[in-house]
Design brief:
Elements (H helix, E strand, L loop, with lengths): L5 H9 L1 H13 L1 H20 L2 H13 L1 H15 L1
Length: about 80
């Protein structure tokens, strides 16, 4: 139709209340929230994979965790069988 101009769209995008409403409506949708959460978790995981502080902290905590030790034991037994 050609009735809608870029300036019309820009008006909506500059309207903070409108954008807040769009965000709130999107957050009501489980698929939308799940998708953003998955994307965010993936990006954080990518950063943490190469973070020496994170690796050090993770190793220090897991060494003290009885559940983790049990998991290591289970994996070790699987490997030995």
């Amino acid at each position: 139709m050609g009735l809608i101009e870029k300036a019309d769209i820009q008006e909506f995008l500059k309207d903070e209340k409108f954008i807040d409403e769009v965000v709130n409506k999107c957050l009501e949708g489980e698929t939308f929230v799940g998708g953003i959460a998955e994307d965010m978790a993936d990006k954080i995981a990518d950063e943490l994979e190469n973070d020496p502080k994170f690796k050090e902290k993770m190793l220090a905590i897991t060494k003290k965790d009885p559940y983790f030790k049990r998991k290591i034991l289970d994996k070790l037994v699987d490997e030995l069988n």
